[in-house]
Amino acid sequence: MPGTGDACVVIGCGLGMISEIDKMLPPGSVTVVEEADLIESGGLRERAARWPCVAAVVEGPAQRQEAAEPPPLAALADAAAVIPSTEYGVVATAVYARAAGLPGAGVAAALALRDKARLREVAGAAGIAQPDWARVADPAAVRAFAARHGGHCVLKPADRQGSLGVRLLGPGDDVDAAWRATAAADDGAARSAGWTPGGLLAEQRLLGPEVSVEALVAEGEVIWSNVTDKALWPGPFPVEAGHTLPSALPPEVCDRVVAATRALIAAVGYGTGALHSEWILVGGTEPHLVECAGRLPGGAIVPLIDQAYGGSLVADLVRVLRGERPDRAARAGCGAAIRFGAAEPGVVRAVHGTQEAAAVEGVFAAVVTAKEGSVAGPVTSGFDRTVHILATGADGPQAAAAAEKAAALVRIETVPADA
After folding, report:
1. Which of 55, 246, 299, 321 has the most CB atoms at less than 10 Å from its CB?
2. What is the pTM of this model?
3. pLDDT higher than 80, residue 197
């Protein structure tokens, strides 16, 4: 049974998550479990200590991808909740929660959500609409798969995040080069050195608007949900260029994609926590599964939700994992949006317009991470975005217009790296 106190165990030292948890939990109530090499390389003990809620950052298996029982962890004895703070900690969170007898995703569900091939198998067996797909072991297998789909396909890793390594392929593209790039795609700063990467998938390329569903789930029941519209970067790398919520799609289409999410929850046997599922609406109305994460969304969707709906999504996730049923607004009170940008490849010489962007009506955050002297590369994943403009408005489209207006004011000067 869930504990009744404030003690919580956070799996993975996600500093953004911890900063939000600190707003609701008392000093010394949180134990963070992280892989030893990441604690060392990231200076995570020192960085996490800035938040009073953190009692300790301890070494432990935070990125395990198997269902074996965890080693003893004293903090579990008094914990009221076990909380995932990173994508790579989803399975470990479920394992620790099971060991403590606390609510969680469930180990089988977590394993499916961390392996895109396994998720495809589970969704297919449940009759959930999704693209044709195959595990691929080499470029020849990719070519054979694409040939069955008019020369087009999507090549992606089975277990990365932030669109890392995802590539759209068409007739005439260099499949060998794409294979090498996708296989080598790495976010090593977020991964433990002891983590074993999975394989690659080829998927049918579907056309239609892209949306995501953010949901809080308690014992398999969706108790709150939101639908977010997505904009994508043009070109072969389907990186998200913006999010707008709540969705401007007709209510019946939003209802359909939320129903598809409920079917997915049932298919994987998901228990309690947060889900972020992504869908392509074929023909503009029919949801087909892209993928699903067993955690809160990234891409600044959480602060957008907090602005639009009020309250704190992180705080309510903690409450759900403590066995509570938080009372969240079912409808957004306003719209919220983010638009991303990036520098042209090269060495950054100067950044202009950040203050002007921040002054645009409706903008509540304008962040540019490109710094003078840094080297900008092409945008191939979410990690390459350096401009982040967040805005609110009377509805989603108005918020998106404000974010786009502000983003257009930001200018990053670069020169060729070999100049």
Report:
1. 321
2. 0.95
3. no
